[in-house]
Methyltransferase FkbM domain-containing protein (Candidatus Woesebacteria bacterium RIFOXYD1_FULL_40_21), 234 residues
Amino acid sequence: MWLLDYKANTYSPAGEDGIIEKILKVLPKNDKWCVEFGAWDGVYLSNTRNLIVNKKYSAVLIEGSESKFKDLQRNYSQNPKVVTINRFVGFTKKDNLDQILKKTPIPTDFDFLCIDIDGNDHHAWKAMVKYKPKVVCIEFNSTVPTEVRFIQPADSSVNQGASLLSLIELGKKKGYELVSVLPINAFFIKSKYFPLFKIKDNRPEVLRTNVDNTYLFTGYDGKVFLSGPKKLHW
C-alpha cells in the first residue's frame, strides 16, 4: 500500500489528513481518541482538527504558549469532547506525556498521536512508556540526509530536531514500524498492525520521496563547496 496516494488536506499542511484517515480505516478497531502536542491554536496546520470536526473524535490538545493556548481554548470551548492543556511536554518524570495524560480520560492505547515541538520530539516520544498509541505522526528534521543518525541534546532551549533514521530506530525499539513519510512528518504504526498495510519495503530510502538535502564537499585544493539549498525552509 502506497499511502502517499491518499494525501489530502482539510486542515493539515502537506497531505497528512488523508493519510491519517486511510491508516485509521485499515486498523481493525478505533477508539476515536487523538492527542496533539505543539497543538498551536488547534486549527492552523492541525493534524487532528479533521478528526475532531469531521470524524467526531475526542482529543487532548496540548500547547505550551500562553497566547496560542488562549486561541486553542476559544476554538474548542463549545466542544466537551476536547481537553485543552497549557503545558510544555518534556521528557522527564515530571513533565513527560505519560504524566500529563494520566489526568485525562484517554485510554492508554488511543488511536492517534501527533508530536510537533520543533526540537525534542525524539526525547518526548522516548519518554512515553505507559501510553502506546496505535499511530504516531512525528516531525523530523528534513535537512538531515536519510542515512544519517542525528538526535539533538535533551535540552528544551535547543531547537535542532532529530533525523528520520534516528526516529525509525527509536520506533523499532518501542514496537513501531514506519509506513509513510511526508516532507517533514513520518508515520508509524504498532508493529502488530504492519502486515495489514501490505508494504513490501518500508526502508526510509524507499518511503521518503521528497529529499532536498544540502551537500558539502571540497576541491583538491581544500576549497569548500555547497550543493543544494543554502537557506533554511522555515
Summary: Residues 16-26 form the longest helix (11 residues). The helical segments are 16-26, 49-54, 66-76, 97-101, 121-127, 164-174, 204-207. The chain has one domain: 3-227.
